[in-house]
Amino acid sequence: MSDEKAVPDEGREAGAIPQAGLLGRLIDRAGVVFALGIVLSMAILINEVALRYIFNAPTIWAHETTIFLCGIAFVYGGLYCSARDKHIRVVLVYDALPARARRILDVFISLVCAASSAMFAWAAWAMVQRAAFRPDGSFRLERSGSAWDPVYPGLLKIFLLVVMAVMAVQFVILAINYARGRN
To answer: Which keywords appear in this protein's UniProt record, sorted alphabetically (predicted)?
Structure first.
């Protein structure tokens, strides 16, 4: 048995791939904000457990806040993975192809993903219209309906729209740079 590991991006620094361009580097850097959101949600839940079970003083905001923080982190995770080229890929055929065929496949996959992301952004816009605007056209964010009643559902839908639109642009940038053969 060999001790060698087949790692396709061995030797490459962590971060956005070069083909992702400036947008990819910005997406990669912003990822730390959402990682800190996960850590903050953990701290909020620890605080909630202490308040609830030690001091018998539960909060009304902890669960919705942690769901919101984790939700936006998961939504952002898709964009983050696209900039770093760390999404799930079936490599059985891909790895067997020569470099030129892989480049063509990368362009095709990026264009399909851009179209898909744009369609999801369009669908998210339909959700945002209902979540952010009243029937008379005035602005009012959808609320959770709980005792605390934050605007998190409306904010999450707006965030999803923005992320899907940026993801579509990111995939177009990837397709262009793959087509140019940029490394």
So the answer is: Cell inner membrane, Cell membrane, Membrane, Transmembrane, Transmembrane helix, Transport
CB–CB of 52/58 below 8 Å? yes
* pLDDT, tens only, 69-119: 999 999 999 999 999 998 877 788 889 999 999 999 999 999 999 999 999
- Rounded alpha-carbon distances, angstroms, from residue 176 to 20, 29, 41, 91, 110: 10, 22, 38, 22, 9
Which residue segment(s) compose the domain that 121 sits in? Answer: 19-180
| Confidence at 183, pLDDT banded by 50, 70, 90 | low
Residue 112 belongs to a domain = yes
Structural domain includes residue 10:
no
Residues 6+ apart with CB under 8 A from 135: none
Residue at 14 is within a domain: no
